[in-house]
Each structure stands twice: as structure tokens, then as C-alpha cells.
Amino acid sequence: HTVTDLDDLLTSKRDLISLLGHDLRTPAAQTVMAANAISESTTDPQIGEYADWIKESGNRQLTLLTEVLQL
User: 7-43 burial string, b = 16+ CB within 10 Å, else e?
Assistant: First the structure.
């Protein structure tokens, strides 16, 4: 009985982590993609610099999320 409860708990944990991973990574990845598009299409160096900051920050956030969700 206890083994079944533990299996159910582990399954619930995996499902929650999977859901959180998707729900947290998707907006961050979309932000990075939008910043890439802005960076590639702008001729204004200041806008390009802002887009680069957004990309760097978004990539750091994605890395952190991945590390936290793997715990």
C-alpha cells in the first residue's frame, strides 16, 4: 500500500514539474525569440543593444529554470 502511494506521489511530482517546465519556459523562450527578431531587423544600435540585453537575460532565465526543475 505504501509503495503504491509513493508511486502515485512520484507520478504527480513528475507531472507537476513537466507542467511547470512548459508554462515557465514557453514565455521566456518566446521573449528570447522576439528579441532575436528585433536584433536582426533593427538598424538602431541602441535598440540592438536593448534586444541583446533581453536575449541574455532570457537565456539566463531559461538556464536557471532548467536547473531548478531538474532538482
Answer: eeeeeeeeeeeeeeeeebeeebeebbeebeebbeeee
C-alpha cell at 8: 502515485
Give dist(CA 55, CA 64) in Å, integer. Answer: 14
Give residue-wise pLDDT tens across range 10-34: 999 888 888 888 888 899 999 999 9
pTM attached to this predicted model? 0.73
Q: Helices 2-41 and 45-69, interaxial angle, to 10°? A: 170
Cell matching residue 27: 514565455
